[in-house]
Design brief:
The protein is of the alpha+beta class. It folds into three domains: about 200 residues, PAS domain (Beta-Lactamase, 2-Layer Sandwich), CATH 3.30.450; about 140 residues, Alpha-Beta Plaits, CATH 3.30.70.270; about 70 residues, no CATH class. About 40% of the residues lie in helices and about 25% in strands. It is built from 13 helices and 18 strands. It starts with 20 loop residues before the first helix and ends with a helix.
Length: about 450
């Protein structure tokens, strides 16, 4: 058993040893097979291989790099997936066509939003079978297309279209003395079948990993991935961190099942007023995040915050009772590339600051971050001073108490004072407040 044609010339002439997966497929008699990811026996790299048997008992093998598979399983960006496949699989173009016959994802930007009006191509797209189609183009290379239906469960999501240059087909004809169109059709069919299988698995993994089971909103993992990708795009962005203040009390009072119903209703109401103006995520147990990719100015963000607040003005019903939800909103504006962790940290800082105010929203500013750093430093200095009994940091002063009647000292009031190397004198109002809050 010998390789007689390969896109990697150095593999031509290779023979499969006994027990090799290639030998196992050959002996199985199967017409086709797509295996699990395995280490290539020659290069040591990880690949996912598919096989298709020809009428003369020869067969074709096609391989996907493991990192390409990983890309499918770890992102929801179809444009990224198609471009990654184009780079790794030596095809001319890939398109994803919706059920209403419009190209909605493509490796060729000029093809986006093109509506398919050719009756022959429409027939291919309407079919559930894998189809092939040859196109003559005098301005460039002639292309050979393969169409494959993509399903999400029992529902058709659209069609994957793969384009390959006919020059490649002619090269195969010269090398293996066979019908190049038939061979390439089979190769691209295996390619399409493998992509369909990977896509279906990736949708399943995506739903498990990137979506919240209760609200069906994208979760914190999706949020972080979304922000990382959006950071490379130009334009101002705004992040709203929405906190349900009394959610813990609701859970303890009415139970977790009712708490889940409240979360679903909150998500539903937020989605209704936000519509498609941005992306909404469930960030944690009692917090949601709304990401707005483009806006004009901060007054527009205030409008968004006020719109969000309106959903909580109406009570949430519990049988014959009413439950009111109290919320706080933090807003952070991002106009340059920042680390995702820093963005989310700043949003949390603003939210904590907002809890100490009467307003329902607060914009983050650097003073909040500096104040938090100062508070954290004072807490550490206090704890170290108490542990080491360091009187140079915490000391006592005695203020006399004078009788207004006799004008004599009748006692002393003992006062604590704090002196630090970094901040100098710190007011008792400040450091006692920190001690009461954190120590």
């Amino acid at each position: 058993m010998e390789i007689i044609y390969s896109s990697v010339p150095e593999f031509i002439g290779w023979t499969a040893p006994d027990g090799h997966p290639v030998q196992v497929f050959y002996a199985s008699g199967q017409e086709s097979y797509v295996g699990e990811i395995r280490e290539d026996t020659e290069t040591g790299e990880l690949f996912k291989y598919g096989y298709y048997r020809l009428e003369n008992d020869d067969f074709i093998q096609i391989g996907f790099k493991a990192e390409t598979i990983s890309a499918f399983l770890n992102t929801s960006d179809m444009d990224y997936l198609l471009n990654r496949l184009k780079e790794d699989s030596d095809v001319e173009d890939l398109h994803f066509i919706s059920n209403d016959l419009k190209i909605i994802h493509s490796t060729n930007p000029d093809a986006l939003d093109v509506e398919i009006d050719d009756p022959k191509v429409q027939a291919y797209l309407m079919s559930d079978d894998i189809q092939s189609y040859y196109v003559t183009n005098q301005e460039s290379d002639n292309l050979y297309y393969v169409f494959a239906s993509i399903y999400d469960g029992d529902e058709k999501a659209g069609n994957l279209v793969i384009a390959k240059s006919t020059a490649y087909i002619e090269a195969i004809e010269r090398e293996i003395k066979n019908n190049g169109y038939t061979i390439v059709g089979l190769i691209l069919s295996i390619f399409a079948i493998a992509i369909m299988m990977i896509y279906k698995r990736s949708k399943s993994f995506l739903n498990l990993a990137y979506y919240d089971k209760t609200t069906h909103l994208p979760n914190d993992l999706y949020l972080k991935s979304y922000l990382e990708e959006s950071m490379v795009k130009s334009g101002k962005k705004a992040i709203f961190l929405i906190d349900i203040k009394n959610f813990k009390t609701i859970n303890l009072t009415y139970g977790y099942e009712y708490g889940d119903k409240v979360l679903k209703e909150v998500a539903h109401r937020l989605l209704f007023i936000l519509k498609e103006r941005g992306m909404l995520f469930r960030f944690s147990q009692d917090r949601f995040v709304f990401v707005l990719d483009q806006y004009n100015d901060s007054s527009e963000l205030v409008t968004y915050a006020n719109d969000m607040e309106t959903i909580f003005s109406q009570p949430f019903r519990k049988v014959d009772d009413h439950q009111y939800i109290h919320s706080k909103i933090a807003i952070i504006e991002v106009d340059q590339v920042e680390k995702v962790d820093s963005i989310l940290r700043n949003a949390s800082i603003a939210l904590d600051h907002n809890k100490e105010t009467d307003g329902h929203y607060t914009f983050f500013n650097q003073h909040m971050s500096a104040a938090l750093e100062r508070e954290n430093d004072i807490e550490k200095i206090l704890l170290e001073a108490l542990e080491n009994e360091d009187e140079s940091i915490i000391s006592l002063v005695f203020q006399p108490i004078i009788s207004t009647y006799s004008m004599n000292i009748i006692g002393f009031e003992t006062l604590a004072r704090m002196q630090t190397e970094k901040y100098g004198f710190i007011s008792p109002e400040e450091f006692i407040g920190v001690a009461e809050k954190n120590c």
